[in-house]
Write a structure and sequence with these properties.
Helices cover 28% and strands 21% of the residues. By secondary structure, it is an alpha/beta fold.
Length: 1476
């Protein structure tokens, strides 16, 4: 800053020094010279003029000048402040801006953000060691600080720093904050509720407000925000169109006149890429060739003997930017033939950005013919037939080449019909909207003529003038000036193709010089490019120019290009007043243009506006010292013959106040007529009637909205501050995409990203616009640098615009979709972002900072006492939620009943009465029976095991014995052998040879708990004998009878232990007594109607829970035959289970979700093959999925649908429900009503309420009943904290009372006290006598309209999820599976997903089934979907390989194991993104 204050002003610098300085600035801004080199050269240049620049700290100078161009100001006399160079592709920078950004960033120096971690293989180039998640145990992230207070404390390198949304106090993720929603409904509504019988959707106001306006935090307007204070504006009138001049009656009349009277006059000169003039089209040639084309179009094209075209038809013009001559002939040929030309870009590939939308435009315009050149036609993609390929979304087109040899000369007496057609459409210009849809703006003949006259008058064009045109001649100003107005005035246009500009950016200046052109038509980008290239050129002169029209003068950032250009070229004859910015829009054509003084224009003006004011739509002039300002130049005066006003952007078009920004509207005869074929939006845009504050229309004629945002300044000059297309409304404030790009570019961009390749757009997430910034990263930028740059950009934008960026993504160089003539195709980029097709290499999401409209966190209501609870129940007319299976008759006192009390007795009795009745068949992968067991065989095997145990292992009654067997008959025999000698058996899954490391410890934990081990050879291979207790091999034990079989003294004696790993990763064993064991078998027998004559097929693991009971206990109890299919065998033969069901005609079959998933995925395409093999599933009455979780509806439905073809009855599939305290609570069984499905409101569920909604309504979640409650089982829903009974509409913990409840946990670590109440809980009021077991699962009961076997109305139990797994976030209860379901739907590459929380942050782990370089696409999509559907901000997104999320044998996700793995950095993630 200090060098600012040196008295430089006093020393006027010579022109050549000023020029050299400007060049230096440019070199620095483009990164062609280092900061050091720049300083050196600059000092050298200024050395003679500045004797005293000591005393300035050099580091300070450098600091303030990082991106450079802010010093020129000091070297030039005051009246003309030069601006550094820029343009919409490379522009965007103002010196003030750069300084502002530097100053803003200085405040943030201390901040560290956690850098994402990336696996090596994903890094294309990196200097950073793979990052691990922060060290979690030392410092959990501080979730409370915001980017608002600038704290300067040092944090551990990677701990996250999260911004708090503005307007929040305290921490945002805690459950506090916010006011409770109104908690009581008036008594009137309550009465109404009681009178309505079963209302479909009870308006349960007390816990939920449905309207999102109330649900989401609505931002309160800031009381200090600026408000417009000016008077209402008046309509601005342009000067009248001159009447004295003899205008030709139409454009075609002008063409005919010049073509016949001045045939040799040059009309258009085309250049090649070397800048050589390749062809000059004269007016005579233009006239004769256009006639020829018109004749050919009307008379020589036929289809089925009918002329192909009739007047008024639309024709596509497909011409490359390098061939203006053919385009002009085609355009005028169409006009002469009364056809409507629709110029479009040349489609280079079948998948060009936006190409599909162009196809939609052509289709809606009914285009059937495309005109093109020979060369262009040869270059188009071809189909096999050699015809031009059909592009995606395009209508079928005939292609006509318009080169001379393909046209027919018209006969002498033929004349085109074309008269002055007034309101008929002359041509259609395409326009791409913000969303990417392409529409056609129709321009009538009358408007065309009026536009040419207005431009001629405004620009003072005269006959035979020369104009240099750098713009695209197919549309916009390039077409209006260079193809239409030029012909009206017999001007000579030198057309400079884009390709030539890329090779030689100075070409247009050289042409102005060599052709002594009077006018030039450029964009600010062209001025910028020529500045970069002008260094060696000393001999060019721009003194011939009287007008340099800057077509994108309406872009707020064009001012810096204009200033810098003038600064350099003033010494080469460029007069300051020659630069004429103009503003145009596809709908209103030219809106305003600055006139040189000789045409009566007032002096040019600049406005320095406060960015904060602009964001509220208010104009506040600011001193240029302030940080966040926008400097804009005027775009001149209104066009001749036009009226202009500024109206409010939204709602009724009221006139704005004089100091208010609004949309500029034009009323003139020279605007477009409408959008082709779209009457609705045409009315909105082209027929707006602005009204005064009193509602009085300001004029008779309608106005056209231009899509430009601006105001009218002094001298009636028009100022534009942005475009409607780039407008992003965040909260209540408006931001302009271009302004944000400019700020990003002021953060030393040359090192890391390409200047012209930055896209800013907004996406709507959670009812508000969110800003997304995408830039192309330079290949040599390291990971660390880029991340550094990204965090600085966030801070700069936050500081200058006071708005958060939702997502910042860097993509590899050259991968963003391009617009036809350079620049980025914004809507296509946005589309790719939303579809997850952008493939970024770096992503930074900041939802915590940006999303400030989340619902208020819910506050827990004070606990309700028993009295009010009961009253509440009565008042609300709610039933207490309880249900039971059918009554079990008391055990009759007959011998039969006593016999069945102990399973060993049952087996002996069966061996005695039906010795040869087969109980078990075991199948292998090929489907052959590998072993069977009849009653007597099983009994004998069991006796042998018992004898061996007693003799070899010296066990005594009550000892625990671990059975480590693969699934099979030996396991069952060993189990009964243990019972025969009074030992307590524990089945243990053998360690899996493929992953011993993870499975062996589990075995060891169980075994250490129980101390004796039985196993078979197969399981022995993997065990180190020395560290284990006594091991007994049962494969070859001698045949011995046991002296006497042990008889338990009472039914309450422990029969076996059931160990299982819960989904939360806790290994828990439960104790099953003999009484519970036989009660369990009896319930299942009654529910499934199992008799000795039945066969059932079981495809389950036999180690725990219901799987164990069905495999080892039930057949012995009920005498039915079990066909055993070990699930492991399905890995080598997927159809094994279904083939077995079909072969043995099983009426009842059991499987697990993993088995069902394997069948659905593995046999999806093979149902035909199975049918050929004779697989028929019509025998199945019930197929039950054994589960300890919420039923997976999608899976069971797709299974049913898939195998319907094999005869599987539609209603056969159902689920069961069991848990640790009771392994079988629900089981569908063979009789009784079908399971019902209800739809509940997911938002209500978060508040522990159940609110039924219709299928398909928003936020609905389908839940299916988990089968019928088993006989003898009673279920009640209890409050998780107060333990009081709940009503029907509440979600609570499922408590169960039944004779087959387990009797307690078997723990080794003395934690019984923790879990004491799991097995012996009592309600806190109501029925306080019954002893219940707490399942640890949340669910609800609902009385249905169906009747059960006893004739009572049927009560359905719905399981929602495990209580241990729920996530408490923002005061609400979330079930991981709901979030996971949303996430899996977000992108096709997400194979699986699991979520958990860590220090109040939601962590989402997704498995990527796709290429690693696509991994980062998922970060934004995951964050979006969780925000939208669950109102939660994701803290960390972890992307891993398929198969990383651990799953237990029942197919359930082990989220806690995953969490431990993540915290211990064991997941080897592809990418970890820490959302800010």
């Amino acid at each position: 800053m200090a060098d600012r204050e040196c008295p430089l002003e006093a020393v006027p610098l010579p022109a050549e020094v000023r020029e050299s300085l400007a060049e230096l600035e440019l070199e620095l801004s483009e990164g062609d010279i280092t900061q050091k080199g720049y300083e050196k050269k600059r000092a050298k240049l200024l050395a003679r003029y500045i004797p005293l620049i000591q005393g300035v700290d050099p580091s300070l100078q450098a600091e303030n000048r990082i991106p450079g161009p802010s010093q020129t100001m000091t070297t030039v006399p005051k009246q003309q402040k030069p601006r550094p160079t820029n343009s919409r592709d490379e522009r965007f920078r103002s010196d003030v801006h750069t300084e502002a950004v530097q100053a803003a960033l200085a405040k943030y120096k201390e901040r560290k953000m956690p850098m994402p971690s990336k696996r090596r293989s994903v890094l294309v180039h990196s200097s950073v060691e793979t990052y691990t998640p922060p060290d979690l145990h030392s410092a959990p992230p501080d979730v409370t600080t915001g980017l608002v207070e600038h704290s300067h404390c040092e944090r551990p390198q990677l701990a996250s720093v999260r911004g708090v949304p503005r307007g929040y106090s305290g921490s945002i993720l805690e459950t506090a904050g916010g006011v409770p929603v109104n908690s009581r409904v008036s008594s009137k509504i309550q009465q109404l509720l009681n009178t309505l019988k079963r209302p479909k959707r009870p308006p349960l106001k007390e816990f939920f407000v449905d309207d999102f306006e109330e649900l989401l935090e609505v931002q309160q307007p800031d009381p200090n925000q600026p408000k417009p204070e000016g008077s209402q504006m008046v309509v601005l009138k342009g000067e009248p169109l001159a009447l004295g001049t003899p205008w030709p009656p139409s454009l075609l009349a002008a063409l005919q006149r010049w073509g016949t009277t001045q045939p040799k006059a040059p009309c258009l000169t085309a250049l090649d890429t070397t800048g050589k003039a390749v062809y000059t089209l004269t007016y005579g040639k233009l006239w004769s060739r256009s006639l020829k084309l018109a004749y050919t179009l009307l008379n020589k094209l036929t289809s089925k003997n009918e002329p192909l075209l009739k007047p008024g038809d639309r024709v596509a013009l497909v011409f490359p930017n390098s061939d203006p001559v053919m385009f002009m002939v085609a355009f005028y040929g169409c006009l002469l033939a009364e056809l409507v030309p629709v110029p479009i870009e040349v489609p280079l590939t079948r998948k060009d950005a936006g190409s599909q939308q162009v196809g939609f435009l052509l289709g809606s315009c009914g285009v059937t013919l495309a005109l093109t050149t020979d060369a262009c036609q040869k270059g188009l993609p071809k189909a096999q037939t050699g015809e031009v390929a059909t592009f995606k979304g395009w209508p079928p087109l005939a292609w006509l080449v318009v080169d001379g040899k393909h046209l027919t000369k018209p006969p002498k007496d033929w004349h085109p019909l074309a008269q002055d057609m007034g309101a008929e459409t002359a041509y259609i210009e395409y326009k791409t909207s913000k969303e990417g849809s392409t529409v056609g703006v129709t321009v009538s003949h009358a408007s065309l003529l009026a536009q040419c006259r207005a431009l001629t008058q405004a620009c003072g064009y005269s006959e035979a003038e020369t104009l240099t045109n750098v713009l695209d001649f197919k549309r916009d100003a390039g077409l209006w000036h260079g193809v239409l107005t030029s012909v009206m005035n017999r001007m000579h246009v030198i057309s400079i193709p884009y390709a030539l500009m890329k090779v030689n950016p100075l070409s247009w200046i050289q042409k102005v010089c060599s052709y002594k052109a009077r006018a030039a038509l450029v964009k600010s980008r062209d001025m910028h490019w020529s500045l970069l290239a002008q260094r060696g050129q000393r001999d060019v002169s721009l003194s011939s120019l009287r007008m340099l029209i800057v077509a994108d003068g309406a872009n707020p950032w064009s001012i810096s290009s204009c200033d810098a250009f003038l600064n350099v070229f003033q010494s080469r004859g460029l007069r300051p007043e020659v630069i004429c910015p103009c503003a145009s829009s596809p709908e209103a054509l030219t809106v305003a243009i600055r006139r040189p003084p000789d045409l009566g224009g007032p002096p040019p003006r600049k406005a320095v506006l406060s960015m904060n004011g602009l964001s509220y739509g208010v104009i506040r002039v600011d001193t240029e010292e302030k940080l966040s300002v926008l400097t804009v130049q005027d775009v001149g005066q209104v066009m001749p013959g036009a009226n202009v006003c500024v109206v409010k952007v939204e709602g009724t078009p009221y006139l704005c106040k004089t100091d208010e920004v609004g949309e500029i509207c034009v009323n003139s005869s020279a605007t477009g007529a409408g959008y082709y074929g779209l009457l609705g939006i045409t009315k909105n845009i082209f027929e707006t009637i602005p009204v005064t504050a009193g509602g009085v229309p300001v004029s008779d004629g309608p106005f056209t909205r231009t899509g430009l945002l601006g105001f009218v300044g002094p001298d009636n000059l028009v100022f534009v501050v942005g475009k409607l297309d780039g407008l992003m409304v965040v909260g209540v404030r408006r931001h302009n995409a271009d302004d944000i790009v400019a700020t990003a570019l002021a953060v030393e961009p040359m090192k890391f990203v390409y200047r012209g390749r930055i896209a800013v757009f907004s996406v709507t997430v959670l009812h508000d616009d969110r800003i997304v910034l995408v830039a192309e990263q330079r290949p040599d930028a390291s990971e660390e640098d880029s991340f550094q740059w990204m965090s600085r950009v966030l801070q700069a934008i936050d500081s200058i615009h006071q708005v958060g960026v939702y997502c910042l993504a860097l993509v590899p160089a050259n991968t963003l979709p391009k617009a036809p003539l350079g620049g980025i195709h914004i809507s296509e980029t946005k589309q790719r972002f939303l579809e997850g097709m952008l493939h970024p290499c770096n992503v930074l999401m900041c939802p915590h900072t940006c999303v400030t409209n989340l619902p208020k966190p819910r506050q827990k209501q004070p606990e309700v006492g028993p009295a009010s609870m009961i009253v509440g129940n009565l008042v609300a007319g709610k039933r207490i939620a309880q249900a039971s299976g059918r009554e079990l008759a008391h055990l009759e006192d007959s011998d039969q009943a006593r016999k069945f009390l102990f399973l060993p007795d049952v087996l002996q009795w069966r061996a005695h009465t039906t010795p040869d009745h087969p109980l078990f068949l075991l199948l292998n992968a090929k489907g052959t029976v590998t072993s069977t067991a009849t009653c007597i065989q099983l009994h004998k095997k069991a006796e042998r095991v018992a004898a061996a145990l007693m003799e070899k292992a010296r066990v005594s009654a009550g000892d625990h014995v671990a059975l480590v067997y693969p699934p099979g008959v030996d396991l069952i025999a060993a189990f009964y052998g243990c019972l025969y000698c009074g030992c307590v058996p524990v089945t243990v899954r053998p360690p899996h040879p493929q992953n011993l490391a993870t499975t062996l410890p589990t075995v060891k934990m169980i075994v250490e708990a129980i101390m004796r081990l039985l196993k078979s050879k197969e399981a022995a291979a993997a065990v180190d004998v020395r560290t284990w207790p006594t091991i007994l091999d049962t494969d070859d034990i001698p045949k011995k009878k046991v002296a006497s079989i042990f008889r338990p003294p009472s039914p309450d004696v422990l029969a076996y232990l059931d160990f299982s790993v819960s989904t939360t990763g806790i290994l828990a064993g439960v104790k099953m007594s003999h009484a519970a064991t036989s009660a369990l078998c009896r319930s299942i027998k009654l529910q499934c109607e199992l008799y000795p004559s039945r066969q059932i097929a079981i495809c389950l693991d036999p180690y725990c829970g219901l799987g164990f009971a069905l495999w080892c206990l039930c057949s012995v109890y009920s005498g039915h035959q079990s066909v055993l299919v070990p699930p492991l065998e399905l890995e080598s033969n997927v159809s094994l289970w279904l083939s077995a069901v079909s072969q043995y005609k099983a009426r009842v079959t059991f499987c697990s979700y993993s088995v069902m998933e394997m069948c659905t995925k593995g046999l999806g395409a093979q149902t035909g093959v199975l049918r050929m093999k004779g697989v028929n599933l019509s025998c199945v009455r019930t197929c039950m999925v054994v589960a300890e979780e919420r039923p997976r509806i999608a899976l069971t439905q797709s299974f049913s649908k898939l195998f319907k073809d094999l005869g599987l009855p539609a209603r056969a599939v159902s689920t069961t429900f069991g848990c640790r305290v009771n392994v079988a609570i629900c089981l569908q069984g063979t009789a009784g009503p079908d399971p019902t499905t209800v739809y509940v409101d997911m938002r209500a569920l978060r508040h522990d309420r159940v609110r039924l909604v219709e299928r398909g309504s928003p936020h609905s979640l389908p839940l299916t009943e988990s089968g019928k409650i088993l006989p003898g089982v009673k279920v009640i829903i209890a409050h998780t904290e107060t333990k009081g009974p709940l009503g029907d509409s509440h979600l609570g913990e499922i408590w169960v009372s039944s004779p087959h409840n387990a009797t307690g946990y078997y723990t080794v670590y003395g934690e019984e006290s923790l879990h004491a109440d799991h097995f012996s809980a009592r309600l806190s009021f109501g029925d306080t006598q019954t002893i219940w077991a707490r399942t640890g699962y949340l669910g609800f009961l609902r009385r249905t309209e169906l009747t059960d076997a006893s004739g009572e109305r049927h009560d359905a139990l719905y399981v929602v999820g495990s209580l241990d797994e729920t996530l408490e976030l923002r005061g609400m209860r979330y079930h991981p599976i709901d979030i996971e379901t949303s996430v899996i739907r977000a992108h096709r590459s997400i194979a699986e997903c699991a979520v958990f929380t860590w220090t109040n942050l939601l962590v989402v782990v997704v498995e990527l089934d796709g290429l690693e370089q696509d991994a980062l696409d998922l970060v934004a999509l995951v964050t979006n979907v969780v925000l939208e559907e669950h109102h939660l901000v994701v803290g960390v997104v972890v992307i891993v390989d398929p198969g990383v999320i651990p799953i237990n044998s029942r197919g359930e996700k082990q989220r806690m194991h995953l969490r431990d793995g993540f915290l211990a950095d064991q997941l080897d993630p592809i990418y970890v993104a820490y959302n800010m």
